[in-house]
């Protein structure tokens, strides 16, 4: 009898649990009935679809991974890459929504090796008021006419010094030359460091540091990540010495000459010397990576498009002759006033996709355009697929600067510098530096480019560093 009673109670108890689970499952389905996960597959256990993504990324059509799934599942789909369940967006409107959302909805998400190298105080990782303060201070300084004038003087100087050493007897490697120029210009704007022994030391350490950004997250002596972290410590020490010297001697300038001055002028206790030094290192990345690649790719595309090169050369020659007649040097507004030059830069940004996309982590369940992005999942806003979408651009794989003559660059279909609160603050300076380099290059040289190919992963670069044979204009 007791056994029968126990069995009955157990049956009732199990029935209650089953009913409760059913109700909870029903409630979950009801709750998300109008908010389904995007279609797609999570791939293999643990590995997900990372191997296929990386394999495609190394090809000449990195977007093929996205194109294949977009044809099956739509512009927004689920996947599993780099160890995380991920919603991939190749939809411009969805990506815009993610980029413009605040930290309550999405925060930056990066590979573990990168987050360890950058540190918790990096502008790439911090959120909220501190991120807005630093981004606002730096962004306002980068837009200032004073800095643009300084960048123009420095860029002209370093470009001329570099080009004076170019020989017609052996190839010039454009990628190497532009990296040297851009790094010097940016470090001067950040910490007022001029070329010399300290600059060479900083550049050597920085190259060691940047090698670990996409490395395996293994921090043991001898590993790439370990060497990168050691290199960063050396760079931080150098930058902190600069910060301390600034405090002890000249004090904080009312008219900032560099980003260190800008951040030291903030009275917030949150902007410590360590935070400022760490962020100076992070802000050097465009000088080694994105800005030089922009200039290099422009030369690559122009070499393959004689009509565009001819029009660019004529536009810049006309400006040079005009300024020579007036006896005036070129100023930053002169370079940015050349419409076709700006179209060439814009088209290079669209085709080159130096920043292929950004990753964010959902801090809560988010619904957009009928899709559910679950809390804890990553979102990969993939710019490259948008920039090469034939629905947005006719003949998207054709270098065509003329397409921008009547096209709006402010649409969500064109996001080479990201968007929202984390829009790259140096976008105007990148255009200015590229404009100055192109002006002096096409007005001083003719050239023949050797065959080279674009590598798209883990960063965009030329496989052979873009070798060209130059001949100075005016020579017989």
From TrEMBL:
Pfam families: p450. Its main location: membrane. InterPro entries: Cyt_P450, Cyt_P450_CS, Cyt_P450_E_grp-I, Cyt_P450_sf. It is found in: Membrane. Its cofactor is heme. It is a single-pass membrane protein. Signal peptide: none annotated. Heme binds at residue 424. Keywords: Heme, Iron, Membrane, Metal-binding, Monooxygenase, Oxidoreductase, Transmembrane, Transmembrane helix. Belongs to the cytochrome P450 family. This is 3-epi-6-deoxocathasterone 23-monooxygenase CYP90D1 isoform X1. It comes from Ziziphus jujuba (Chinese jujube). The gene is LOC107403831.
